Amino acid sequence: MIIAPSLLAADFGHFARETVRVDKAGADWFHLDIMDGHFVPNISFGPQVVRAIRPLTKMFFDAHLMCSKPEILLEPFAQAGADQINIHVELGEHQVTSLLWKIRSLGKKVGLAINPPTAISMVQPYLDQIDSLLIMTVNPGFGGQSFIVETLPKIQQAHVWRRDLKLNYHIGVDGGINFATAAECARVGADAFISGTGLFGQRSLRVAINKMRKLVTENARDNGLDFDRHALPAGHAAKT
Ligand code: DX5
Ligand code: ZN
Fold first, then answer.
1. Is the pLDDT of residue 40 over 50?
2. Domain of residue 23, residue span
């Protein structure tokens, strides 16, 4: 189980200090939200910031490109120290194939992200080409939004494909992830939990990360829980 705090929810006046804090708190991945003011209506930070914090930690850097022209950003982020780069399936099929290939050719882990309104079938052709599937559980652009419960069936479908096709991509969830929604996602098959305000809003980041990891492990889809009974969406209480 991967717990990935998002830098977007950190104190932007102190990127370096916040990076060290996240590292010391025991995070597995550091999620880096890159917004271009076009693909999403917000701007975050660029490769220079990633380059600046790279020497401070050995954490796995998970870059999430919410950008209309990721082709001009793959190399800069790869050189700046990203370990995994996620691009969006909404860019369209002729772009996605070459972008995934380019990320791989840069020696980085390959991630594919999908927005809440986009049908999960859109990612199906790429499942054997990716290391991670990032299922957006809010409409991207801003931290602090509420989890969209209708995304749960997509997580479950991604899990079924992974099992049936014997693939081993991560299933990440991103947006509105707190202790309760992380547990819900774990029950339907998620194994990477991106959380901004849900973790940074807690008094102790270390305690919060440990608590979330324990919760998702207890609620994990692969824990031998009955698949149909715990399937979907609401109607049951997760162990919290
Ligand atoms: C949303 C970003 C998320 C964001 C999550 O556009 O992709 O990674 O940081 O923030 P929270 O956890 O606050 O919803
Ligand atoms: Zn993100």
1. yes
2. 2-222
